[in-house]
Amino acid sequence: MARRYDSRTTIFSPEGRLYQIEYAMEAISHAGTVLGVLAKDGVVLAAEKKVTGKLLDLSGVKDGGYGGSGEKIFLLNSNVVAGVAGITADANSLVNYARQAAQRHLFLYNEDIPVELLAQRLCDLKQGYTQYGGLRPFGVSLLYAGYDPNYEFQLYHSDPSGNYSGWKATCIGANNGTAQSLLKQEFKEDMGVEEAIGLVLRVMSKTMDSTTLGSEKLEFSTLTLDPTTKQPKAKIYKPAEIDALLQKHDLGKKDEDTEMRA
Amino acid sequence: MSIMELNGGSVIAMVGKDCVAIASDLRLGNQSLGISSNFEKIFAMTDRVYVGLPGLATDVLTLREQFRYRLNMYTIKEEREIEPETFVHLVSSALYERRFGPYFIEPVVAGMQKQPNGSFKPFIAATDLIGCINFAKDFVVAGTASTKLFGVAEGLWEPDLEPEDLFETIAQTMLNSVDRDAFSGWGAVVHVITKDKVIKRTLKGRMD
Amino acid sequence: MDISFALTGKGYVLIAADTTAARSIVKMKSDEDKIKVLSPHLLMAFSGEPGDTVQFAEYVERNMRLYHIRHNHELRPPAAASWIRRSLADSIRSRKPYAVNLLLGGYEPRERTPHLYWIDYLGTLATVPFGAHGYGAYFALSLLDRYHDPEATLEEGLATLRRCIDEVSKRLVVSPGKYKVKIVDADGVREVEL
């Protein structure tokens, strides 16, 4: 019976459900985990990369990273970074849309787009694809980590239906249930960025399937205020920086030779 | 009344030895009435590329906003900053898009161009209001004092000036030229650009 | 024939505009308010082509309100100024442009700074310590060059404003009789008596 209502995004089933959207959400819950934590002086994002392997050409990622040349974390504007979970091709198109929207706001108002407004812009687009005929919804959930002078640091989540909400810490993608409950236990109200980085890495290492974390499976970024200019500064970590960070938090790959010697 | 001379203002750029300089006046007027003495017409596009936009003031602001939009998209997608020569072509096409209803601006671009071997070469160029590019080896001028700037620069400029000497040359060229132009002046600003830093100096000028 | 002045002081912006509504050589009205309150900390004096002025001022007013309702916070003065400038810059290249000149005064409670913008019908925007539109500009700007002080108290600011108005009354052939003066500061906007 459900089948008759499966293929149309814009048609309710007799039970009042929109199947295509539920399927989109289902697709996202198999995607790589993306995790965000809001601290009092910044926001931290981490994401699990699914496309890996030693034949993958990563030479472009090595020294790039300004806009996030990786798979999951992108700079949307100078004050917003986003982590995406779901169909990467859909995500790329949304990222482009978001960047245009942010620049349009800058053009009109000469100020960086407020974070919630950017989330709204994307959600308006996503909602449209659940209502207007003949189209498939975007199979993408996003976490937005951003800063604006009105509400300072913020973390938002949006899903394929076009819903969005603000969070102190949240997670999308595979194992998001486990991660959410870990976050609920360990989140503290007045955490600083350093502490939040530790929390994110700890939760990430517990929820990801692989035993050891490494830059080939992980993307990482922070959004803080530049101490001199007081302007938001997004940092998307390069592979070497991620490995160094993991070593610092004792979560990186152990160098077996040194262990043997010890 | 010419629309290019409604608000007044002038820009000049010069090449030096491993450096370039770009300078403008600070006046915004309405014909003969002065409105503001801190109306900047030179904008940083990247750390190494600067653009000066003399002409109709509303278009100064509009083009500045439009270039910022296009450049931010370029930077975020290309994951690198634009080179001056590429930027001039962006300017040119933005202006030619309005071929039959132009922006009343004659842009001047100055910057350090990255060479294939990793070194940097001085670059300056200017375009007319519909985007015809003029690549120059020595200096380029634009704005209501352009005729005077040509004359003074022709006399003062010499090849291979060091940054400090180039600063003095462009500053004197600017200050003395605008004294012969009723629509330019009210102070000036100079940027000297080298491969790793930019020095910005604001100059006092005659207030008459 | 409209005349408007504005100046900044320590923690405030003062805006004055004449109250005459004229048609040809006839005064139709002498209590016209030409200063709109756009938001709790934003004032806009408008002048220019009759008809365009009120239409454009109300268009701006309603858009500022809409932004406030949609986003739960008002536009900061620089953002409002940019949006208004954009509207005029788009308008000037349209089939029927608005012929409206503006003085936009705002106060930013967060940073405790006054903002003043001089905007004309072409979409020219200048951040200024003081500004004027209309024939009054030719008399007032030189006075303001001499007497304006960005650190002046409200009393001193009003005295400077009075000088401008008196000079226009003395020297301009078609000088208006009455002015309305509004202030924007940390307490919001209100009308002040000269």
From TrEMBL, chain A:
Entry annotated with the keyword Cytoplasm: yes
Single Gene Ontology BP term? Answer: ubiquitin-dependent protein catabolic process
Q: Where in the cell is it found?
A: Cytoplasm; Nucleus
What SMART domains has UniProt attached to this entry? Proteasome_A_N
What keywords does the record list, in alphabetical order? Cytoplasm, Nucleus, Proteasome
Q: Which GO terms describe its cellular component?
A: cytoplasm; nucleus; proteasome core complex, alpha-subunit complex
Q: Where is the signal peptide?
A: none
Residue ranges of domain Proteasome alpha-type subunits in the record: 5-27
Lineage, top-rank taxon, reads Eukaryota
Q: Which family does it belong to?
A: Belongs to the peptidase T1A family.
Per its database record, what is this protein's job? The proteasome is a multicatalytic proteinase complex which is characterized by its ability to cleave peptides with Arg, Phe, Tyr, Leu, and Glu adjacent to the leaving group at neutral or slightly basic pH. The proteasome has an ATP-dependent proteolytic activity.
Q: How does it assemble?
A: The 26S proteasome consists of a 20S proteasome core and two 19S regulatory subunits.
Q: What is this protein called?
A: Proteasome subunit alpha type
Q: Which organism is it from?
A: Wolfiporia cocos (strain MD-104)
TrEMBL record, chain B:
This protein's GO cellular component annotations are: cytoplasm; nucleus; proteasome core complex, beta-subunit complex
Highest taxon, organism lineage: Eukaryota
| Intracellular or extracellular location(s) | Cytoplasm; Nucleus
Keyword terms = Cytoplasm, Hydrolase, Nucleus, Proteasome
Q: Which CDD domains match?
A: proteasome_beta_type_3
What are the GO MF terms of this UniProt record?
hydrolase activity
The biological processes this protein is annotated with in GO are:
proteasome-mediated ubiquitin-dependent protein catabolic process
Function noted in UniProt: Component of the proteasome, a multicatalytic proteinase complex which is characterized by its ability to cleave peptides with Arg, Phe, Tyr, Leu, and Glu adjacent to the leaving group at neutral or slightly basic pH. The proteasome has an ATP-dependent proteolytic activity.
What protein family is recorded?
Answer: Belongs to the peptidase T1B family.
Subunit notes for this chain? Component of the proteasome complex.
**Name of the protein in question:** Proteasome subunit beta
Which species is this record about? Wolfiporia cocos (strain MD-104) (Brown rot fungus)
The organism's taxonomy opens as: Eukaryota, Fungi, Dikarya, Basidiomycota, Agaricomycotina
Automatic annotation (TrEMBL), chain C:
- Plastid is among the record's keywords: no
* Compartments, record wording: Cytoplasm; Nucleus
| Family as reported in the entry's similarity comment | Belongs to the peptidase T1B family.
Q: What is the lineage of its organism?
A: Eukaryota, Fungi, Dikarya, Basidiomycota, Agaricomycotina
Alphabetically, the GO molecular function entries are: hydrolase activity
Q: Whom does it interact with, and what assembly results? A: The 26S proteasome consists of a 20S proteasome core and two 19S regulatory subunits. The 20S proteasome core is composed of 28 subunits that are arranged in four stacked rings, resulting in a barrel-shaped structure. The two end rings are each formed by seven alpha subunits, and the two central rings are each formed by seven beta subunits. The catalytic chamber with the active sites is on the inside of the barrel. Component of the proteasome complex.
Q: Name one GO biological process term.
A: proteasomal protein catabolic process
Function according to Swiss-Prot or TrEMBL: Component of the proteasome, a multicatalytic proteinase complex which is characterized by its ability to cleave peptides with Arg, Phe, Tyr, Leu, and Glu adjacent to the leaving group at neutral or slightly basic pH. The proteasome has an ATP-dependent proteolytic activity.
Q: What is this protein called?
A: Proteasome subunit beta
* Any matching Pfam family: Proteasome
**What's the main place this protein lives?**
cytoplasm
Q: Mind telling me which PROSITE patterns this protein's record contains?
A: PROTEASOME_BETA_2
